Amino acid sequence: MPGPFETLRISEILAVILDGLQGDKKSLYHMSCCCRAFTDPALDILWRSMHSFAPFTSLISQSVSFVNDAQTSDCDLLKYRCNSLDDWKTFDKYAARVWSLRIGEHNNNSADLIKNRDCYTRLTVIRGQDEFHPFPKLRSLAYVLSGPISPQAKPFPPSLRSLTLVCHNTLDCDPIELALDRAVAEAPHLKELCIIGLMRTMRTLQSTPQLQFGQIGSVDLSKAYIRAPELAALCTLLSQAPISDLKIHLQDRLNMNWQAIPPMFPALKQLDVRGSMFSVILFMSRLAATNLHTLVFQPDGQLSGVTTFFDYLIPIIAEKLGKSLKSFDLHINEPRPHARDSDLIKSIFQGLEPLARAGLQSLRLFLQVTSTMPVQFPPEVQSMLEPSAWPSLKRFHFATKATALE
Predict the structure, then answer these.
(1) In degrees rounded to 5, what are phi and psi of residue 30?
(2) pLDDT tens digits, one per residue of 186-226
(3) What is the dihedral of CA 80, 81, 82, 83, to 10 degrees?
(4) Of the residues 70, 138, 313, 390, which has the maximum number of CB atoms within 10 A of its CB?
């Protein structure tokens, strides 16, 4: 029977142990130092997911230290030729292990962050001359849009599958259309896109470029601040992609001509939308999806317009999604008089009856409450909250919660 040490030399067993230590960088470091057999496997896990570019600045050879200098121009970078692989030996040893790299965070506009972003971008200029990316195995990247992207740079490696663009909306920042154009051209296998913050656009639908999005299927705009011009351009642009999963937060009273926007997101299957009743009604009216099966809705603002919600939104949902919708989650988070909760729930369920008859299989209603006391409903409403009241559904769930959905 092999001893404990010989057992750990079995690669499959060692991989399971190291996977369990992914969040424990101290233990991974100690394992990488304890014996040669553990060094490479432990370092692979230790460097797989990096939450900052800063550790890599110290790995750059002195012979190419000018990439850290903000005064270095693209012309200076293009004059550089790497005559020895030793210049990059240490850097490549660790960068080649990275699958996930986060260069920026939302609401973090520090000088160090911009310096690290610029250093990363300049590295792609130098290594790109040899058709080589500094992070050849990178799958996930969080990249800061704060200023123009150099034409010579290639910040999005071909291996990329997931991209987060953190927008800082500086005056010289590339419009989101151009950034996406670069992303899909350099990373043709991109599948997931997340946009955070306040973006810039070309502002006219006529100038929206026709992009080939390839495989992109999931888009998260729930943390993006999207004004009317950006929403019109972005929806028109992204509707060219085969997006099946969309998360979006719509601002209140978006002043735009919705009829000028072509039918949106024909391939959509899952939609998680948050926003004002008014904006969501207009957004839903332009959906072209015929196979959307999952809808999550979290309205913003006071729910005084419950009548508006059911008089306008539910008929739109029933007309457009009645044949395909199987799951509907409704989160009501905003403050309101608790005396009206019973009337609110009655109105909601009465409005949802057509969807249940059309083939809805799962219905979940979450009601935010601020009181720690149990919520009491009259018998008529309480009976509507029982699964037996919805025999056509495979799943029915009602719950109160103390905090809003994130």
Answers:
(1) -65, -40
(2) 999 999 999 998 887 775 544 445 556 668 999 999 998 88
(3) -130
(4) 138
pLDDT band (50, 70, 90) for residue 80:
low
More confident residue, 92 or 13: 92
The tokens of 241 are what?
Answer: 């992609």
What's the mean pLDDT in 38-52? 82
Using CA atoms, how far apart are residues 144 and 165, in angstroms rounded to an integer? 6
The token pair at 396 is 């029915």
| Cα dihedral across residues 71, 74, 80, 82: positive or negative | positive
Positive/negative CA dihedral, 273, 278, 281, 282: negative
CA distance 100 to 52: 10
Check pLDDT > 80 for residue 245.
yes
Q: Residue 103: is its pLDDT beyond 60?
A: yes
Burial class of residue 143 (count of CB atoms within 10 Å of its CB; 0-12, 13-18, 19+): buried
Check residue 1 and give its pLDDT.
43
Q: Are 222 and 331 in contact (CB under 8 A)?
A: no
Phi-psi region of 119 (alpha: psi -120 to 50; beta: other; left: phi over 0): alpha
**Token output for 251:** 């601002």
Hey, what's the torsion of the CAs at 370, 376, 380, 384, to 10 degrees? 60
Is the CB of residue 267 less than 8 Å from the CB of residue 238? no
**How far is it, in rounded angstroms, from Cα 287 to Cα 266?**
7
**Residue of 390, 381, 383 whose CA lies nearest to 362:** 390
Alpha helices of 239-359 — where are they, by DSSP H? 277-285, 306-308, 314-321, 341-358
* Structure token digits, residue 102: 């986060």
Q: How far apart are CA 270 and CA 220, in angstroms?
A: 12
Q: What is the Cα Rg of the chain in Å?
A: 26
d(Cα 151, Cα 173) in Å, to the nearest integer? Answer: 13
Residue 246, SS3?
strand
Secondary-structure percent of the chain, ordered helix, strand, coil, rounded to 5: 40, 15, 40
- Residue pair 95/56 in contact (Cβ under 8 Å)? The answer is yes
Report which of residues 237 and 29 the model is more confident about.
237
What's the 3-state SS for 44-59? HHHCCEECCCHHHHCC
Q: Which of 2-6, 73-77, 298-302 has the lowest mean pLDDT?
A: 2-6
